[in-house]
Specification:
The protein is mainly beta. It is 5% helix and 40% strand.
Length: 258
């Protein structure tokens, strides 16, 4: 969807020289109608009731009310700036002290995390995952707060060798967000004529003034020219120009002495 909400793509290209754009409508209209059904149902996917408690499936500012299998009423309040920040706070408000389990989803992209309940940091068995979920099993009191911090470093992604079109290329990801280079931010770069080094440091900056508020990544291309990357979902919301997710990988010409 466009940020204005009135245009959409049927296919989502990972590179374009500038000819691909969202449109207001297309003959096969399953995507817009599915979106109309999906948005009102988000609350049904964010949390789930389990046999022994509750599961937190999605990270978003939200409030929910549940009843455990024993009939205990519980209110949950989630506070987060995800996906720009990996910190998630979950305030737990049971009507009385009682034991139950809260499961917190650990996304597949996450390589590490920290978990606290109140002032207590959980390690080892207390912070282990089961089928992609952290299991927090304890007696909960009114106002207990879980703090989950997901590590969100900038990462280089490479495709499998079988994907011929992506050989010798890399993509950039931070947390759940895939990034791209768009001509609007890179007037000195030419489509597919620049390269990034996997060792090039990329700096993060939150830009509340840009594209509805996004975290951008800045660095330099192989040629020394500045390069700015934006979240892929936000491309094609400004003037026309090229866009690339898979960027040619620069040869590392640094000299290492052993």
């Amino acid at each position: 969807m466009s940020l204005s909400g009135d245009k959409s793509c049927y296919v989502n290209p990972l590179a374009t020289q500038g000819a691909h754009h969202r449109v207001e409508w297309f003959g096969t209209s399953c995507c817009p109608t599915n979106l109309a059904r999906y948005l009102p149902s988000i609350g049904q996917y964010a949390y789930a009731k389990t046999d022994d408690g509750f599961a937190v499936n999605q990270f978003m500012n939200s409030e929910a009310e549940f009843e455990t299998g024993s009939g205990l009423a519980v209110k949950l309040k989630q506070t987060t700036n995800y996906p720009w920040d990996g910190r998630i706070e979950l305030a737990v408000h049971p009507e009385r002290e009682e034991n139950f389990v809260i499961r917190l989803r650990v996304p597949d992209w996450c390589r590490g995390y920290k978990l606290k309940v109140g002032d207590e940091s959980l390690f080892g068995a207390g912070a282990m995952t089961d089928r992609g979920y952290l299991i927090v099993d304890r007696k909960w009191s009114q106002g207990d707060v879980i703090v989950l911090e997901l590590d969100m470093p900038v990462e280089v992604v490479r495709a499998r060798e079988e994907v011929e079109a992506d050989r010798g290329r890399l993509a950039i990801q931070r947390g759940p967000i895939v990034y791209c280079a768009e001509q609007a931010d890179n007037p000195d770069l030419t489509y597919d004529a620049f390269a990034l080094s996997a060792r090039e440091p990329l700096n993060m900056h939150y830009r509340p003034d840009l594209l509805g508020g996004i975290t951008v990544l800045t660095g330099r291309a192989e040629e020394g020219k500045p390069c700015l990357l934006i979240p892929y979902y936000a491309w094609d919301n400004r003037e026309e120009g090229f866009m690339q997710v898979w960027i040619r990988e620069a040869e590392d010409r640094r000299l290492y002495l052993y």
